[in-house]
Specification:
5-stranded mixed β-sheet; single chain; globular; 7 strands
């Protein structure tokens, strides 16, 4: 179920090519309407939408605290999007522009950007500051998922 203020993004299934609408906030895991494979789940959130988009997610959430003027943030963004595709059905990527959402930056104590977090049930289980290549991000997320497993 999508809240009216949070539009659904279009995602092409990497298995069958079908285009699917993936809401920013929903329960469960987004799956392709055609082949039922898990879809990557990426959403933007702000101060007011974060509790619904990230806090209530059933999957672990990778949070990217970033700003459009930040060079390292722009460098790490494609790696995070690839990570969301690689871990479709296992994680949700939520991007937070700290210029637009300063309360979230304060809440998580972000003193530099990009600051990356892994949340499980709304609680921070891992934190990393600064840009890193895809392989390092994948190892960091895998370790966070393994240590934070219920």
């Amino acid at each position: 179920m999508t809240a009216p203020s949070m539009p659904a993004g279009l995602v092409r299934c990497r298995h069958c090519g079908h285009r699917n609408r993936v809401p920013a906030a929903a329960s469960g895991i987004p799956r392709c309407g055609n082949c039922h494979q898990p879809l990557p789940w990426t959403a933007d959130a702000g101060d007011t939408t974060f509790p619904e988009v990230a806090g209530a997610a059933s999957l672990p959430v990778v949070v990217d605290l970033w700003a459009p003027w930040c060079g390292p943030c722009r460098m790490v963004s494609p790696a995070l999007e690839q990570l969301a595709r690689d871990l479709a059905g296992r994680v949700k990527l939520v991007k937070v522009n700290v210029d637009v959402s300063p309360r979230l930056s304060q809440r998580f104590g972000a003193q530099a950007i990009p600051t990356l977090l892994v949340l499980r049930a709304g609680q921070v289980v891992a934190r990393q500051t600064g840009a890193a290549p895809l392989a390092a991000l994948r190892a960091w997320v895998d370790k966070a998922l393994a240590t934070a497993a219920p």
